[in-house]
């Protein structure tokens, strides 16, 4: 599975949201598995979207044929688009599926990992972070994706912001020490996204 992550700054909110509804046209696309998004809870005007495809081949075919027609409705409504593609490496919890009706919050963690620490980083994701997240109240499911250049994206879906709030600083610090995250990671950036049900495809 392929995940596409888009982060952008919206300059015309009404126009952007109106255009966002046009992406319902993705439903007929071969290989399309689902899309969701919403507003950053910490950065005003920043929107995130995640789209899931069965494979890179299906995604490339869509980009060549239908993408520009669907995207036309949002031209001029945003700036600073940051787009990355990640290949699914493994699930967080079990049986990740790109459905969003039961989730309120999307959590994204974007990591650049030191080249010589990739194996350790992935082992710690599996042995330390996954069990901790899977055991957190309100955490539904998630996945780890990888892009070339030692770049990783952890996507997790949560039932509510209140439940996500329980997965908090002291616990995260303990886990980070156990996973030796400072030794593995060159840079990490994250965001918590309030999902907009009308953006779900």
From TrEMBL:
Key words of the record: Monooxygenase, Oxidoreductase
Task: Kindly list the residue ranges recorded as spanning the membrane.
Answer: none
Q: Which residues form the DUF4937 domain?
A: 2-86
SUPFAM superfamilies recorded for this chain?
A: Dimeric alpha+beta barrel
InterPro entries from the xrefs?
Answer: Dimeric_a/b-barrel (IPR011008), DUF4937 (IPR032555)
The molecular function terms of the Gene Ontology recorded here are: monooxygenase activity
Pfam families membership: DUF4937
Know the name of this protein? Antibiotic biosynthesis monooxygenase
Which source organism?
Answer: Streptomyces natalensis ATCC 27448
